[in-house]
Design goal:
Chain lengths: ~475, ~210
């Protein structure tokens, strides 16, 4: 009898093409997602070496990182960004890769459109030159971000060379309370284990609170695995997964569906499978989370306070907290609830799917964005945008004073014109509160879509649980 | 791409002992629009090196006179976390760094280092603290001397040595060490296994996602 294996072990084992004598494996890649920022140098490398894309049919490209989210009928006013978009169009054509460009109704953030199209499927190895590729692990895929040299390697060989990471189980027992979202679960985990807490590991999220999540919520959890330092995050596929996938344009069709589901049902970790590490969280004890610092691990309950550097155990941590508070212009002991904000961003590969927009719209409905606050809603894809418009979400947001924009990464990383001005404080549904992430000198507080929408209306951070 | 092999390197150190230095700090996003692998050196730590008015920030560690010409960076834990942008490694290399010495590195960043001949050396935090102390004390022995603190990173012997009493071993995955020592082109190496890849592809089902 074979030893019990984890979900990750099964996906890994099924993709090992070869083991190099020095240790690492040559791992086959089922799906390679490509975007404009991390691919031009990789295609150029292929060109210089006279290589082709080995499996164009397993490679899908879109534009998301530096695209404008305003009027798409106008030419780009940033010539360098335009050059990068042109380069991807040229490369896609030259190497036979399918591209969802700015004119496509399927364009969107790469981690939103992959699942939306049904490209992402259980048991796959998925890579992309973007750290938030971990999102796709929500389907029980091993999905990881890679650098541009590795992008070139995958384009040329359809394989990746890597040593097998260790495994870590993050078990969320119990049920989350009202007003507590998937975003709060993952932020609470990162706060607990730290931003390098899962380094070298693949996280598998398990437990009652995880099984109860929708696919979109699972994507939010897996998306931020990288913020815990993990190589990837995974959730076992189940009926929720299959129901989400069935009928999607690139999912297995009617004829192959039964066979596909049968194979996917074999993927969940076997009883007694061993993880290298385990961490337990009580979902019922998690409150809505808000970051106060410049790293996603600098997070606490919305009912909490800005911490005092003196309360941290090591000199390194004290220095880091002092730096963070200076950057964020926060004083120890200040309650997070009530902190005034000037900007709100509902968007990003973490929280810009339809359920996220619905949650924000529910809070915004019939209310007004506070005076002096600029609030933006940036759907994760043009499909999400169209769906939102069918449901009337755009009218709710616009009536409340939110901007309703086109799909892209936008203010999550501020590569386009959507940036914070120096000193602006932003309630954001994105994934990184690093210094300058949303614009040089900008101050980011990460939170859930409902919390961000409530902050927009109140003009300050509020506890969405006391909001109805 | 063929890389310059890294066997051993002796050079001047600069210390940046902050934890969780993310790749957004190493290369801010406004510099990611280039379609080349070059031209990122000037962008390195841009928002830390320069003030909002564009003038140099004299307080930033790499702007201190003693850090000029440094080729080895002493860094804090979880260096290179966050975004997968390889631009961060291109910027560090173009600025002149040959090796980064830190208690730990983010996974994607250390893979990117290896692809570009930049050596990521992992040492225990206490040893890094000692190196930072020596670096800040200036001088030290080693060749060159003259107020600069110099280290030798010997990848062949897997040893870091300052020629003045600090000497320690480090470990590295054998595959990565081999790649760096020989300046190997990973794609070329993988393509030697092409028959295995082709054979694996024959066994695949279901077929690729339909168009």
């Amino acid at each position: 009898m074979t030893a019990p294996r984890t979900l990750f072990d099964k996906v890994w084992d099924a993709h090992v093409v070869h083991r190099f004598p020095e240790g690492p494996a040559l791992l086959y890649v089922d799906l390679h997602l490509v975007h404009e920022v991390t691919s031009p140098q990789a295609f150029e490398g292929l060109r210089q070496a006279g290589r082709r894309v080995r499996r164009p049919e397993r490679t899908v490209a879109t534009v998301d990182h530096n695209v404008p989210t305003g009027d798409r009928s106008l030419p780009l006013d940033d010539p360098i960004a335009a050059k990068q978009l042109d380069a991807l169009a040229l490369n896609a054509r030259a190497f036979g890769v399918e591209l969802f460009d700015l004119a496509s109704p399927r364009q969107g953030i790469v981690h939103v459109i992959g699942p939306e199209l049904g490209l992402t499927q259980p048991g796959m190895v998925v890579v992309c030159g973007d750290s938030h590729t971990s999102t796709h692990g929500a389907f029980g895929a091993f999905a990881l971000g890679i650098g541009t040299s590795e992008v070139e390697h995958v384009l040329a060989t359809q394989c990746l060379v890597m040593s097998k990471p260790r495994t870590m189980e993050a078990r969320f027992a119990g049920r989350r309370g009202p007003g507590v979202t998937a975003k709060d679960l993952i932020l609470a985990l990162i706060g607990r284990i730290g931003t390098a807490g899962a380094a070298g590991h693949v996280l598998e999220y398990t437990g009652e609170a995880i099984g109860a999540l929708s696919m979109e919520e699972r994507m939010t959890v897996c998306n931020m695995s990288i913020e815990a330092g993990a190589r990837a995050g995974m959730i076992a596929p189940d009926e929720t997964t299959f129901a989400y996938l069935e009928g999607r344009p690139r999912a297995p069709g009617h004829r192959d569906w039964g066979r596909a589901v049968l194979a996917w049902r074999q993927l969940p970790s076997d009883p007694g499978a061993a993880y290298d590490r385990r961490v337990d969280l009580d979902a019922a004890a998690v409150a809505p989370q808000v970051t106060w610092g410049t790293s996603p691990g600098m997070v606490t309950d919305i009912t909490g306070y800005v911490p005092n550097p003196a309360d941290f155990p090591t000199a390194d941590e004290r220095r880091a907290v002092e730096r963070a508070l200076a950057y964020m212009a926060l004083t120890p002991g200040t309650p997070l609830e009530g902190l005034p904000i000037e900007r709100v961003f509902v968007g990003s590969c973490t929280n810009a799917r339809i359920e996220d927009l619905r949650a924000a719209a529910q809070v915004a409905r019939g209310r007004r964005v506070a005076a002096g606050v600029r609030a933006m809603v940036v759907p994760g894809s043009q499909q999400v945008k169209a769906q939102g418009e069918r449901e009337g979400l755009d009218r709710i947001f616009r009536a409340a004073g939110f901007e309703w924009r086109n799909a892209g990464c936008s203010l999550c990383l501020g590569m386009n014109a959507d940036v914070l001005r120096r000193g602006e404080r932003c309630a954001s549904t994105s994934n990184r509160n690093f210094e300058g992430r949303q614009g040089a000198g900008g101050r980011t507080h990460l939170m859930s879509p409902a919390m961000a929408a409530a902050a927009a209306v109140a003009g300050r951070l509020v506890d969405v649980r006391e909001w109805s | 791409m063929t890389l310059t092999p890294f066997v051993r390197h002796t050079g001047k150190c600069a210390a940046l002992p902050r934890a969780d230095v993310d790749t957004d700090q190493i290369v801010p996003k406004q510099f990611l629009k280039r379609v080349e692998r070059t031209g990122f050196g000037p962008a390195l730590f841009y928002d830390w090196r320069f003030r909002p008015d564009g003038s140099e920030n004299p307080d930033f560690e790499l702007n201190r006179p003693e850090a000029a010409g440094a080729t080895i960076l002493l860094a804090g834990a979880n260096f290179g976390c966050g975004s997968s942008r390889e631009h961060a490694v291109w910027a560090l290399a173009e600025y002149g760094f040959r090796a980064i010495v830190a208690p730990s590195f983010a996974d994607i960043f250390s893979a990117n280092c290896c692809q570009n001949g930049l050596v990521a050396v992992r040492l225990p935090a206490a040893e890094i603290a000692e190196l930072v102390r020596r670096c800040r004390g200036g001088g030290g022995g080693g060749e060159g001397g003259g107020g600069a603190y110099r280290l030798t990173v010997d990848l062949e012997q897997q040893r870091v040595d300052d020629g003045a009493g600090f000497s320690t071993k480090f470990s590295m995955e054998p595959y990565r060490r081999e790649m760096l020592l020989r300046g190997l082109d990973e794609i070329g190496r993988t393509l030697l296994e092409e028959p295995r890849i082709a054979e694996f592809e024959l066994s695949l089902r279901p077929s690729p996602p339909p168009r």
